[in-house]
Amino acid sequence: MALRLGREAAGARPRAETVRWSRRTPVLMILPAVVVLAAITLFPLLFTLRLTVLSWELTTGFPPQFIGVQNFVRVLTQDPRFWNAMANTGVLVAVGVGLQAVIGTGLALELNRLRRGRALVLSLLLIPVMIAPVIAGFQFRMILNDQYGPLNYLLDALTFGRVRGFAWLADPRVALGAVMATDVWQWAPFMTLVVLAGLQSLPGELLEAAEVDGATGLQALRRVTLPLLLPVIVIGVLVRVMDTFKLFDIVYQLTGGGPGNVTETIAYYTYLQGFKFFSLGYTAAMSFVQLVVITIVAQVFLHYQKRVRGGAVA
Amino acid sequence: MRWNARALCAVVAALVLALTAGTGSAPTGPAAAAMQAPKEQHAITWEYPPKFSNVTVNVVGDAGHNLAPYEFWRDHFPKAGITIKIIEVPFEGVYEKEKTEFVAGSGAFDVVTFYPAYIGDFASNGYLEPLDEYMKKQPDSVWNPHQEDVLPPFRELYNKWAGKTYALTIDGDAHMMIYRKDLFANPAEQAAFKARYGRALAPPQTWDDWLRVGAFFTRKKGQQLAGQTLDRDFYGSAEFAKRGFSFAWFVDRWAASGELYFDDTMKPQINTPAAVAALQNFVDSLKNAPPDVRGYGYDELRDALLNGNVAMVVQWTDVPKKGADPSQSKVVGRLGYGRVPGLVIGGKVVHRAMMPVGRVVAVAASSKNKLAAYWVAKHIAYDMSLEDVSTAFTGLDVNRGVHFKHPEAYSDFKTTAEAASYLDRVKEALADGYPEIFIPGAAQYEDALDLHVNKALAGQETPKQALDAVAKEWTAITDRLGRQKQIELWHQALNSYKIAGLVK
Amino acid sequence: MRRRSPARRLVTGLVLLAALVFFLFPVLWMVLTSFKSNPEFFAYPPVFIPKSFALTNYLNAMRLPPDGRGGLQGVRDSLIVSTGSMVISLLAGAPAAYSFARFRTGGENLSFWVLSTRMFPPVASALPLFLVFKSLHLLDTHWALIVANTIFNLPFVIWLLKGFFEDLPAELEEAAVIDGTTIFGAFRRVALPLVAPGLVATALFCFIFTWNEFMFALLLTRSDVRTLTIIVPSLVGGHEILWGQVAAVGVVAIIPNILLALLLQRFLVRGLTLGAVKG
C-alpha cells in the first residue's frame, strides 16, 4: 500500500505548503550535473557532428573535404564489416547481457536467503568486477589456452580423457562464446549487487503478506518479487547493454576480433577506424549510427520499464 | 554509520597519501638492479657532443624492453648535458598516441620511436624533422650515424621518405625458418620419410615441402617421434594465424612469385592465381598445426616451438636468441635456422622473407631541442647499437653491417661459432627481404588484407573469395585516400624498394 | 519468512558454492600465476601451485624500468582518478537523481539526454576531448582523466539512483517537509539514508569503472600520470609477455577495490527494510 502511494506521489505535485520550494530547489539540485555534463560533452558532440559530413583521412596530408551524407551512405549500405560487428555486438547484448541478468538476479535472490556470511560471499563474488578487463583478458588467455590452459586440462582429467575441450579462442565456432563467457564472468556480479540493493530496499512485509496469502516461493517470486525488482533490473541491464556496445579491451586481448571477424565488436571496429586508420569523418558517422541504435534500444527499455512499473502498481 | 563513513574517508585518504608520498620522487637504485646493462663492446667509436645546457629530451616509445637502452646508458646522457624523460606507451597504443599528439601539435615529444610502416604518414604530414643536415655536422665522430653501414632495406625503406632521411633504424625485422634439427637428423625419421615419400628428409626448401614435411611430423599422442613415445600430440608446423599479422605469413608464401601488392596504376595484384595458390597453401598448412593455431600470435607461436610442441615455424629472427636461453626454451641446442621456404620458378627455388614491423627513432618537428634530440636518437641507433641488438634484455634485432662483424657480443649463444652461424642465417634472411606496404594508409591496406586472409584461415571465405575481396577493398581505400596522390606515393615506394634491392 | 526447509538451504548453499568456484577460479589462477616463474606459465600438465612463493614478480612489476616507479605510481594515479571521479559524480549526481525522480525536473527529455551522454562511443569523443584538454593545459594531469571519466560515471549515478529514489515512498519526505524541512533537507536527511545500499553500490561501481578504464588513460596521459591499466600492457613487449608480472599487477590492483568493498559491505548488505523505518 505504501509503495503504491509513493509511486503516485512521485508523479504528483508535492503538497501545497511546499510549492514555493518545489519550483526552485529541484532545478538547483539538477543544475550541477547538467552543467558538468553539458560542459564536457557539448564540444565533443558538435565536433563529431561536423565531422560526419567530412572526408578527413588523417593519414594523408589532405585537408578535410565536404562530402555530404556519403559517410552515412557508406556505413548503411557499403560496409558489411560494420553490420557484422553490429551483429556480433547484438549477440553479446542479447545472450551475454541476458545471461548476466539471469545469473545476477538468481544469485541475488539466493544471497538474500543467506542468513550468515552474506557480506563475505557478496564481497568475494564482486572480485571479478574489480579486475580491469585488460588484466582479466590476460588471465583468460591462459585459462582458455587449448594446450596448456587449466580449463581443458581439468575437462580432460575430470572426464578421464573422454571430453576434449575446444580451442576456445581460436575455433570460429566457439570464439564469440568465449569472449561472451569472459564478459559474463566479469559482469554478472554487477547485476547481483544491483538487484540485491534493490531487493533490500523492498518492504519485507509485502513479501511476507504474499507468503501468508499462501503463495509458494515460486509464485511469490513471479508475482511479487520480480515485478518489484524489474525497474532496478531494467536499469542495470540498460547500463550493461550500453557498456557492451563499448566492449573493446577483452576482444583486443583475447582474439583481436578473429578468427576472421567472428569476434569483432562494434567498439573494436570503431576503434580501428578511428585510431588505426584515422578516418575521422567515417568514424564520426559510424558513431552516430551507433548512437541512434543505442538510443532506440534504450527507449524500448525505458518504455518497458515504465510499463512494468505501472504493472507493479496495478 | 557516521563513524563508518568517516573511517572510510580516513582510510582512503591515508592510502592516497601513503602512495603519493611513497612514489613522489623516482627511486633510481632498485630499478637499475633489475636490469643489467650489457658489457660495452667499444666496437663502434663515438664521442660526446659539446655539452648542452641541461636540456630535457622527451623520448616516447613502446613500453617495456625496447626502451631498455635508455636505462642501460643512462649515465651517458648527463655527460652530454641531457636529461632523458621517458614516455612509455603500451605496445598496442604507440601509433594512435603519437599520431594524436602530432595532430594536435602538442610538442610533447622530442624523440619518437615508431614502426617504420608509418614513416610515410609521419614524414609526409610534416611531423618529423629531416635529419640530413644533422648527419653532416662536424665532427664526424659526434654526429655521423653512418647510414651507409645500415642494411639497404632498412636505410631506404625504414629511414627515408621522398629522398630525405627522417629516421634511424634501431630494430631490423625479417622472417626466417626455425626447425628442430634433431628431428631432421634422426635416422629412424629419415628412413621413414624416405620410405613414405621416396626422397630424403630435409628442412623444407619450398612451400610444397613445408606441407609434406609438416604432415610427416604431425603425430598423435602415443605414437613414436624420433624413437620416443609421445605423451601428447605433436605437430609438424605452426603459423601466426591470429588476427593482426597473419597476412605476413601469407606474403611469405606469395612474394617469391615476384608479384607486388599493386601494379603501376595501383590496381591491386593481390588476387592473382599465384596469390590464391599461396593462400591455399597457408590454409592447407593449418592441418599440420595445433588445433588452436588460429589463436597464435608471436608469443604463442614462439612458445609452441620452444616448448617442443612443433617441428618447424617461420618466425622473426630474434626467436633463436630466446631458443638458446634455457629459462625460456626446452629445445636448447636443438634448433636449426634457415631461409623461409620458397617457390620453384624456372627450375630454381626463389626465397622471399617478409619484413614486418621493425622500429625506428626520429626527431619530432615540433621539438624545442632538436639537436639534443638528434644526438640521443643517434646515440641509441648507432653508438650503442651493437650492445642493444646483441643482448636478450631488448627485443631489438640486427640492422647494420657492424652488427654482423662481432658475433662475440651475442652472449646468449653458448659459443661464438653458434652466434656466427645464427648471424649468417639472419644475413640470408635479410637478403630475401620483402617489404610491407610503405605508403600512407598502410594500416588500412594491411588490415583489409589481414582480415580476409584470416577469414580464409577460419573457413569463412575461400582463398579466391578472400583475395578478390581484398582487391575490392584496396581499390576503395585508394579512392578514399585520393587515387592520384596514392599512385604518386606508390611510385615513390617502388623506387625505394628498387634502391633497397627488394624488387627488380 | 525466515524459516526455510533444510533442503532449500542446501540448494542455496550449493548454488552459491558453485558461483564462488566459477567466479573465483580465475582470480585464484591470477594469484597463483603471480608467483610462478618462467617455465611454469605454460607447462603441461598445467602448474597450479608454483614451486616457490617468491615475491620476484611483485618486486619487478612495482618498479618498472626505466624510471623505476611503474606499479606503485599506477596504484596512486588510479586511486586519485577513480576517487576523484566517484566523488564528483556522486556529489553532482545524487541531488540530480532525486530531483528527476521526485519532480520530473526538465521532463523526460532532459533525463534521457543525461543518459544518452553515456551512450556516445568513447572513440568518437576521445579526439575532441584531447583538443580541449590540450588548450586547457590539462593533458597528463589527474584532472583530465577525472573529467573524462565523469562523462560516463555521472549518467550512471543519476540513472541508477533515480531508480532507487523512485522506489521510495514519498510520504516520509513529505512529512519532513511539512515539519519545516527544506526539500534539500528532506533529500539529505530522509531520502539519502534510505537509499544508502543503492548509493554505496553505485559509488563502488563508479570507482571500478574508472579504475578499469583504458582508452582515455592511454590518450590523455603521458608520463606524470599513468594508471594501472596503462601499466599492464606495458608489461607486454612486442616480443615477450611477462605473465607473472601482469598477474602481480592484477593482484595489487584489486587490493584497494577489495578493501573498499569490505569497508562498504556494511552498507551494501545492511538489509534495510522500509517497513521497519515506517513503523
From TrEMBL, chain A:
Q: From which domain of life does this come?
A: Bacteria
Q: Does the keyword NAD apply?
A: no
The UniProt record lists the ABC transmembrane type-1 domain at: 86-301
Q: Which GO terms describe its biological process?
A: transmembrane transport
Question: SUPFAM superfamilies annotated for this entry?
Answer: MetI-like (SSF161098)
Q: Which UniProt keywords apply?
A: Cell membrane, Membrane, Transmembrane, Transmembrane helix, Transport
Q: What is its main location?
A: membrane
GO cellular component, alphabetical, reads: plasma membrane
Membrane topology label: Multi-pass membrane protein
Q: Where does the signal sequence lie?
A: none
Offer one Pfam family short name for this entry: BPD_transp_1
Say if the entry is tagged with keyword Cell membrane. Answer: yes
Q: What family classification does the UniProt entry report for this protein? A: Belongs to the binding-protein-dependent transport system permease family.
Q: What is this protein called?
A: Sugar ABC transporter permease
UniProtKB/TrEMBL annotation, chain B:
* InterPro entries referenced in this protein's UniProt entry, alphabetically: Bact_solute-bd_prot1, SBP
- The highest taxon in the source lineage is Bacteria
Assigned keywords, A-Z: Signal
Entries under Gene3D superfamilies matching the protein? Periplasmic binding protein-like II
Q: Does the keyword Magnesium apply?
A: no
In the record, which residues are listed under signal peptide?
1-26
**Name assigned to this protein:** Extracellular solute-binding protein
Please tell me the species this chain comes from.
Candidatus Segetimicrobium genomatis
UniProtKB/TrEMBL annotation, chain C:
Tell me the keywords, alphabetical order. Answer: Cell membrane, Membrane, Transmembrane, Transmembrane helix, Transport
Query: Which residues span the membrane?
Result: 12-32, 79-98, 110-131, 143-161, 190-211, 242-264
Instruction: Output the Gene Ontology cellular-component terms.
Output: plasma membrane
Coarse class of the protein's main subcellular location: membrane
InterPro entries registered for this protein in UniProt: BP-dep_ABC_trans_perm, MetI-like, MetI-like_sf
Q: Which Gene3D superfamilies match?
A: MetI-like
Tell me the compartments it is located in. Cell membrane
Residue limits of the ABC transmembrane type-1 domain?
75-264
Task: Classify the protein's membrane topology as the record does.
Answer: Multi-pass membrane protein
Name listed for the protein in its UniProt record: Carbohydrate ABC transporter permease
